[in-house]
Amino acid sequence: MDFTKLDGLIPAVIQDDVSNEVLMVGFMNQTALDQTVATGYATFFSRTRGQLWTKGETSGNRLRVERILVDCDDDTVLVRVTRLGDGNVCHTGDRSCFNKVLPVASDSGRKSGEDRPASAGSHKVRERGRDLGAE
Amino acid sequence: MDFTKLDGLIPAVIQDDVSNEVLMVGFMNQTALDQTVATGYATFFSRTRGQLWTKGETSGNRLRVERILVDCDDDTVLVRVTRLGDGNVCHTGDRSCFNKVLPVASDSGRKSGEDRPASAGSHKVRERGRDLGAE
């Protein structure tokens, strides 16, 4: 892993292994990643507190690691987890930390010339994906 | 948005709006985010090149933004996209940048006392989630 790009840290995207929701993004240093791998529970490095924290250590809402995927640049990990405890990952009490919507340009505001989805025949998948989305 | 924690940058998690796969993680500064919102196509700030880049500008594999979600700390965005062009997001030619697996502790290595998933009755969802996973 390459920890040099962010002063010793890498982003860790936490994704629910069942629903595929993105639940939160934390940061890990080498020690946090080692501890995550060794224990099987997600441990982060808190940038604000300057120390390691194992998610759910106090609340019981730990994140059991099912799989860790590394990206092509070796500078980000995708951690697929099972939510334990009451299953609420966000400190606000919500299941996911991503709950606010930022408005984007409407379709009419975009150039549409070559704007076709990559694969055809995806409608069935789309419907199923919607069911499982972060919405 | 809070751009102060990473010297003017925030992580941007790119998730396929159809399959819910996490495709890549990039970084945005305020300008990249503004441009993403205004154009409806994902634009990042390249840390290595020190400049903005609109994903797919050359290859045609642009990422059409369907929705942007902001996290509880206002320091990360989750960008749900439709893949355009040939749909391959990674520069290696793969659909996703997350293709390498990092081994984690086996279940037997974990304490199992309170280690129960957050919600019961999730087996059906799990099966469907597996189909759509980043595997």
Provide an overview of this structure.
The structure is a homodimer. The first copy, chain A, has about 140 residues and is of the alpha+beta class. The first copy, chain A, has a domain at about 10-85: Phosphoribosyl-AMP cyclohydrolase (Ubiquitin-like (UB roll)). In chain A, about 15% of the residues lie in helices and about 30% in strands. The first copy, chain A, has two helices and seven strands, in the order ββαβββββα. In chain A, the strands form two sheets. The first copy, chain A, has a four-stranded mixed beta sheet with strand order 2-1-6-5. A two-stranded antiparallel sheet of chain A has the order 3-4. In chain A, strand 5 (about 65-70) and strand 6 (about 75-85) form a beta hairpin. The first copy, chain A, is globular and about 45 Å long. The interface between A and B is large, with 76 and 76 residues. Strand 5 of chain A pairs antiparallel with strand 7 (about 100) of chain B, so a sheet runs across the interface.
What fraction, in percent, of the residue positions of chain A are helical? 10-25%
Shape of chain A: globular
Question: How would you write the strand order of the largest sheet of chain A?
Answer: 2-1-6-5
Biggest interface in this structure? A-B, 76 and 76 residues
Taking the alpha carbons of the first and last residues of chain A, their distance comes to 32 Å
Order of helices and strands of chain A: EEHEEEEEH
